Amino acid sequence: MVEIEIIGVVGSGQMGSGIAQISAVHGVDVWVHDTDTAALSRASKSISDSLHRLLSKGRLSQSGATDALRRLHYTSNLEELRSADVIIEAIVESEEVKKSLFRKLDKITKASAILASNTSSISITRLASATSRPHQVIGMHFMNPPPTMKLVEIIRGADTSDETFRTIKTLAERFGKTIICSQDFSGFIVNRILMPMINEAFFALYTAVATKENIDLGMKLGTNHPMGPLELADLIGLDVCLSIMKVLYAGLGDSKYAPCPLLVQYVDAGRHGRKCGIGVYNYSKASQKPNP
Ligand code: NAI
């Protein structure tokens, strides 16, 4: 099994920054890369704020926080990730963009390095085909937000080796996560089920079945979900939800996965959810919260 001392995280958005944080807290040196230097600065601040919150709540020691911060390195130069034992990719949910990155990572990283993707829906087998090491490519799908959500979904591509699987399973367990294993079909387990529900909530809104507040409240109190589907979509990112629906639609070939026109329109309008201040709900308002 590969010994994990250095992790490279590619993409420093909401998922990449959370994955970098838990890696550092669990004793791994982390190189975080993003092509956008502003995203790197935001990630550095959000990780530091999050570690200080854990410290103030007594869930992390002072030395734990200091050590974690010391282990984190931020770079806009992908080549700095060359000595990583594992790369965890968390960039935009686009097969072409991810494949192009995997081609570069295959050239840059050492031969033993594992290339893991945090993709929500895209075929691991196809990402692996962009590399010369398909046996070392695997899906390692964290939930949002990675530091608090207990699950990691592991997806083996057609050629993923047992050794790669064992190494990533052990890493997820070191992070304190429970794992589930999925076959490599569009959306895997969690998003195969979650995204059609979110898409249906958009259809309910689109066809004026109810207000957004009542749709969310109905699913919270009626089915005991901690968040309503529209609030959750805003947290995930409407752009990410739309990308996943497109992958489900293309990969599973059933019209029931066609993205709701209202979801498409919101994304076209730049309403990407919480991360940009507006999605289904408007977070720039004084309340800052959906008000069902
Ligand atoms: P995000 O939009 O918050 O962050 C993506 C980051 O990747 C951005 O900072 C962007 O500058 C960077 N990036 C884009 N192309 C790049 C490239 N070629 N090289 C380096 N950096 C690049 O996205 P988020 O939400 O963190 O999602 C990232 C991945 O995680 C996606 O594959 C998504 O499907 C998956 N995911 C998302 C979840 C969510 O709830 N948002 C949950 C689980 C997985």
UniProtKB/TrEMBL annotation:
Signal peptide extent: none
Family: Belongs to the 3-hydroxyacyl-CoA dehydrogenase family.
NAD listed as a keyword: yes
Name the record gives this protein: 3-hydroxyacyl-CoA dehydrogenase, NAD binding
Domain 3-hydroxyacyl-CoA dehydrogenase NAD binding: 7-184
Organism: Dillenia turbinata
Reactions catalysed according to its record: a 4-saturated-(3S)-3-hydroxyacyl-CoA = a (3E)-enoyl-CoA + H2O; a (3S)-3-hydroxyacyl-CoA = a (2E)-enoyl-CoA + H2O
Record GO biological process: fatty acid metabolic process
Iron-sulfur keyword on record: no
